[in-house]
Amino acid sequence: MSKKEMHAEYTGPAKAIPVGGEANAMHDPLFGDAPVIEPVTQQIDESVATEAFMNEKVLIRVNEATHEFDDPGPCPQVNGENMPLRRGVPTWVKRHFVEALVHSKPARYTMQSVDPYDPSRRELQANISLTYGFSVIEDRNPKGRAWLEALLAQPA
Fold it and tell me: How far apart are CA 44 and CA 41, in angstroms?
């Protein structure tokens, strides 16, 4: 007995798979009619365009350290990819690393007295700022500036 005959004996007779318009008429006794699958080319095109935009190179400079205990060189990580940066040195980076720098905004809280005559009335004041201040020196995409401004305007 050949392999083909053994396979046919084990799996049963071959069934035709409907293609095109016939696929909509396919009926499964367990699950009912097969759903119609619509193409998603528009969503894919938008995703590809966004991915291409986020992988464009932008020239940035991370500000010099202001305290002696500051990180000498930040290293943003995006999807397992690291980008070590040196402070004060202009560096070409992918736009998604700029987004990672923008999103590194820790909140530092200070206690403020609301009423100087009543010490029990205090409020926490949040101070939220970028961990690593930076400047964009060059962005060749005309949409880049609006993207960065919108990103910086988002709440922490």
Answer: 5
